[in-house]
Design a protein that fits this description.
alpha+beta; 9-stranded mixed sheet; 20 helices; elongated
Length: about 625
């Protein structure tokens, strides 16, 4: 029987330096540029010749009117082609476009003899209801923030000192992925549209501590569509970044340890996940720029690499496409040494056997860059070929996983590897309603690959927690192309893994922000609802926020129509200041109710006023004024 060596403690694993051999001869930066220019010239020469620009007249002459008419027709054809390719909203029966963005549903109670079209009930989409009640919802969220800042909301967890954060970044003994979350600021055009901030990254309660909690304030209506409440959902993460955090700080916390590990001969992978328009690609580009500089300049005292081999490709379902190839050639994935850990009986690998592990990209162009400028130009060429698609959230939504694999060639000849994965942008359900069949198929493939990624991390965590002697937990990294490419990261115990989730603070994206936080938690290897806690509170419509941020509830007089008065209400109204002339002479019987007194004319009121006709007329007029004041028309 094979002996099981402990592998659940990454800090006890010896330093492993792999030799990632390229699949085909390495090309330099100059050769890469020559191939790009050659492909561009070939594409230009192979382009079909344009047809005759116009039809000549019968006499063989060409007039300016003919040219103008031809240009106008060509422009109209191009515009029609753009309209046909653009995503369209579904059209209901009868040719009327469906209103999915702002849903307003009315229920008509139509009976014979009644006017048609009379609305007896009106229901609004929950996102529209948030905008309609933005003022009290904003006040409720601000009140919660004030309580949290004052220490009245006891933090459930969520404080991590800088020393603990450094230790957490140095090793992950449970085999899980470090989870980072970044909140983007609320844009001015969103404020103009009526949106408000529903995401909070509270400051740590302890001094010299880092925030590790993020809250989403889910503002909703009760089924009666009158009462309101807010559900404060908190999520525990490795580190949370607020809207004021610079990209440099995000890089230093999440990616810099992986760059250092790659320069030491290790491997690391960083995933980026989030809703389209939440700042996902913006954050990844900032991390790429910082990583490119430090791979050559060195990081945290570790000298830089002598050269960096680049592989840049996208994964869409079961298809891998090379982004560095001008022809966007397809790539095949070949595992090298993956079988050494397989078989019916699990065998723990020795450090030197890890050097056999690699994933080769058959058919991919992997140029080698020797300077930071060359590496930036190669990455920019790949970005220009990434597949994007226009959606209702973003004009250039990424519809595939982009994988940037940077293999560092070190001074001693060994290699380290850093992989940056920009996951495809996820969409809201209402945005998916307007997708074409092709876009819906892409969404299904994206979800399948993310599920495979979550399963691999979960099984990797279980294997690390079990340790030796307790059996082997299989990591199903062959479930998708995305996890196959990252085979080394799931097998090697010293691999560094991390995921950054980006969320939008807009109220209309509340559900998607909650879904993003739950998904990155699952990608991080956590179980369902692990590290999630909620708090619910009712919201009054009379909440107001002052200029200094304090929240108060405005006192509003409870208006009761006179027809609904009780006997005590009648006596209280007569004794009310301003009605002193009635308090002394008017007698209210114990059986008198509001429905009775509103029907009395001045003659009937004389019995209450001791036979005083003048006082009875004044009482009648006063009652009419109160009825008018309490009517719904007067109050609106």
């Amino acid at each position: 029987k094979a002996e099981h060596a402990p592998q659940n403690k990454a800090e006890h694993a010896p330093q492993i330096k792999a030799e990632h051999a390229p699949q085909k001869p390495i090309i330099g930066y100059d050769e890469f540029l020559r191939l790009q220019e050659q492909a561009a010239r070939a594409e230009t020469e192979a382009a079909p010749k344009a047809p005759a620009p116009f039809v000549t007249a019968a006499n063989g002459k060409v007039t300016g009117a003919m040219i103008d008419a031809h240009d106008a027709a060509e422009a109209a054809k191009k515009q029609e082609a753009k309209v046909d390719k653009a995503p369209k909203k579904p059209v209901a029966a009868g040719g009327v476009p469906s209103q999915a963005e702002n849903v307003v549903v009315t229920k008509d109670n139509r009976e014979e003899g009644k006017t048609e079209g009379k609305n007896t009930r009106q229901m609004f989409d929950k996102r529209e209801s948030r905008r309609m009640n933005a003022k009290p919802f904003c006040a409720a969220v601000q009140r919660w923030r004030n309580r949290r800042a004052a220490g009245k909301c006891k933090p459930r967890s969520g404080t991590m000192t800088s020393a603990k954060a450094s230790a957490s970044a140095a090793a992950a003994s449970d085999g899980s992925i470090r989870v980072y979350v970044r909140k983007r600021p609320l844009f001015q055009h969103e404020v103009d549209r009526g949106e408000f901030d529903v995401v909070t990254v509270p400051a740590a309660a302890e001094k010299d501590a880092l925030p590790t909690e993020i809250f989403v304030h889910n503002c909703q209506m009760y089924p009666d569509l009158k009462r309101m409440y807010v559900k404060h959902s908190g999520f525990d993460v490795t580190r949370a970044f607020g809207e004021g955090t610079e990209s440099v700080e995000v890089y230093q916390t999440a990616a810099a340890p992986m760059v250092t590990g790659a320069l030491n001969g290790g491997i690391g992978a960083l995933f980026m996940y989030g809703q389209t328009g939440s700042g996902k690609t913006f954050t990844m580009e900032a991390i790429e720029q910082s990583a490119v500089r430090e791979l050559f300049a060195g990081c945290n005292g570790v000298p830089g690499a002598s050269a960096v081999r680049v592989a840049y490709f996208e994964i869409a379902g079961k298809k891998c496409t090379d982004l560095l190839s001008p022809a966007r050639t397809d790539i095949s994935i070949k595992e090298i040494g993956g079988g050494v850990s397989g078989g019916k009986e699990f065998k723990e690998l020795r450090p030197e056997e890890y050097r056999q592990l690699d994933v080769q990209l058959i058919g991919a162009m992997e140029p080698a860059a020797k300077t930071c400028a060359e590496l930036e130009q190669i990455i920019a060429a790949g970005k220009s070929r990434r597949a994007t698609s226009a959606t209702h959230c973003n004009a250039a939504s990424s519809r595939s996983h982009a994988v940037l694999r940077l293999t560092c060639v070190l001074a001693d000849g060994s290699t380290g590897r850093l992989t940056l994965v920009d996951c495809a942008g996820s969409e809201r359900k209402e945005d998916n309603m307007h997708h074409s069949a092709e876009q819906r198929r892409e969404t299904a493939e994206i979800n399948a690959s993310l599920y495979a990624l979550k399963e691999c991390v979960r099984q990797r965590r279980l294997q690390a927690q079990k340790g030796s002697g307790d059996g082997h937990v299989h990591v199903p990294y062959r479930s998708s192309h995305l996890t196959r490419v990252l085979m080394e990261c799931f097998i090697r115990p010293d691999a560094r893994l991390g995921v950054i989730g980006t969320v939008s603070p807009a109220s209309t994206d509340t559900e998607h922000s909650v879904s993003t936080l739950k998904t990155v938690g699952l990608i991080g290897g956590r179980e369902e609802n692990e590290g999630v806690h909620e708090e619910k509170e009712d919201v009054s419509k009379n909440l107001e926020t002052a200029a200094d941020g304090t929240v108060s509830e405005k006192e509003v007089e409870r208006v009761i129509a006179p027809v609904r008065w009780s006997n005590a209400n009648i006596k209280a109204w007569i004794a009310k200041p301003g009605n002193e002339k009635f308090a002394a002479k008017v007698t209210v019987p114990g059986s008198l109710m509001g429905r009775d007194i509103v029907r009395m004319n001045p003659l009937a009121l004389q019995n209450l006023c001791g036979g005083d006709a003048k006082l009875a007329q004044l009482l009648h007029n006063k009652l009419r004024e109160e009825i008018t004041r309490c009517s719904s028309k007067a109050r609106t």
